[in-house]
Amino acid sequence: MTQPIDVSVPHKLGREEAKRRIAANIGSLQGHIPGGAAVTSNWVGDRLDLGISALGQTVDASITVGDAQARVHLVLAGMLGMLAAPIAAAIKAKAAELLEDHRKA
Predict the structure, then answer these.
(1) How far apart are CA 46 and CA 28, in angstroms?
(2) Which of 75, 76, 90, 101 gives 80 a disulfide partner, CB atoms 3.0 to 4.6 angstroms apart?
(3) 75 with 4: CB under 8 angstroms?
(4) What is the DSSP letter of 1?
(5) Do residues 33 and 54 make contact, with C-beta atoms less than 8 angstroms apart?
(6) Dihedral of CA 37/26/58/5: which sign?
(7) DSSP 19
(8) 0.85 cut: is pTM over it?
(9) DSSP 8-state symbol, 86
(10) How far is residue 15's CA from residue 66's CA, in Å, rounded to a whole number?
């Protein structure tokens, strides 16, 4: 059994600026996963494909960036599906951090 999770993150940055910020911040994703994780990422047009490995499990995810929103999509397989609600809540709580600007002025 699989459990899909979709979270939309609205923004007013425009597509290119949102992509730039996500690319700059994606490295911090590992720190938000309990027990640590290995994260791989690859841009394909306006979609960032992610491979997340933690606690012996692997999850494929994507972030599709639009002009006014970013859409996070992942599918939890097996036992991870039982954790869908808390994982979705964590994504909703933290996803906007991917769009923060951490450049020094």
Answers:
(1) 20
(2) 76
(3) yes
(4) -
(5) yes
(6) positive
(7) H
(8) yes
(9) H
(10) 5
